[in-house]
Amino acid sequence: MATRETRLARTFVEVVDTLVADFDVVDLHTLVADRCVEIFAVDAAGLMVVAADGSLRVMAASSDATRTLELFELQSREGPCLDCFHSGQPIFNQDLANAVGDRWPHFARAALEQGFSTAHAVPMRLRDQVIGALNLFQTTGTLAQDDIESAQALADVATIAILHHRASIQAQMLNDQLDQALTSRIAIEQAKGMLAGTTGLTMEQSFNQLRSYARRHNRRLADVARDVVDGTLINADVELPPAT
Amino acid sequence: MLMSEAGLRGSFCSTDAVSSVIEELQYGLGEGPSIDAFTQDRGVIEPNLAEPSVHRWPAFSGPAVEAGVRAVFAFPIRIGALRLGALSLHRDRPGPLTTDQHTDSLVTAEVTAEAILALQADAEAGQIARALEVDGDFHYVVHQASGMIAAQLAVGVEEALVRLRAYAFSHGRTITDVAQAVVGQSIRFDRSTGAGESHPRD
Predict the structure, then answer these.
(1) DSSP string, B112-166
(2) CB A181 to CB B84 under 8 A?
(3) What is the ipTM of this complex?
(4) Which chain B residue has its CA at the smallest distance from A223's CA?
């Protein structure tokens, strides 16, 4: 049986590995939730991450019951994950029986009904940016300082992996846009040349012909250009004056 | 130089006449340090282009040396696994890069990648960012000439571009130079012979 330290070290390697291998962000969320239950003295874990529209979403939970509880937290708009996300500060060893009174009247009752007695939450944070929170639940006892620090470290590393993944998706998208724009532009220049080569028009006149054809037929210039280049549209079609 | 899996896209920026020649040669010939750096995804170091230990670029090296290049270095412009092109550096005397210069080159290539994407982030949908367009040279005249040759020879544009390259290479001219002549109608390709012919204007 591997020691707690060995398992923790392995988990860190797993999380960092997602930076290089074919990364699946859903796998990462699930991995973090599952490993928390395996390594720390907690009985359930759930992970919420902020979506593009700014709202929190439940991304992973160590069990279906925990997922339901996390969804209830979002629905009732109170609970450790939300407090932690908004403050950016961790919550440790919150006695749920005490929280029924004022802190989380609805959430704490639902969590107690699930058999949990203590709740914790650590922010998913890099510097000023908080992207979510990790919820941990216990049925008995409290969490030692050691586990608290390790849980925060795990959340920190997972946050970096998620942000890195987002940046790479953004870069890929911009590069695809640039590539498509250049490809379209090249097709337009080629079509201008083909038209000029057939008709003796200048490049500028050819461009005007292509553009007015595209307008008359309510089509994108780049699409018309591609049709000219691959022969779908013959030069004579493009040259035709507008029908009266 | 901007590149994609589909091929060479054009030059984004060159600092002087010699670096323009390096870019133009590589674009016309399809070989050279930037192209190796991009396709092999690693830094390419040639500290002595005039007398290299290994002759890597038979067509590129001669004209590059003639233009004054003695050492040439190229680094991929990339973000993670995403490859955008290559940065080429040259010097008018042989010799390797110092460790600091090598490090600076890698950093510059990285910053360039970030800058290209940051500029493109401001572009209108379907357009090339204006800042890239203004400073760049995407060889539009070559594509116009390919279209004209395609019409003259009744072949596809890819084939036409090959003919254009072949004509430039066999006449010892740059591809841009020949493309301008084709667009200006002083070179025409004949459908019966398939060859390019000079048509000096009367």
Answers:
(1) HHHHHHHHHTTSPTTS--HHHHHH-B--HHHHHHHHHHHHHHT--HHHHHHHHHH
(2) no
(3) 0.82
(4) B126
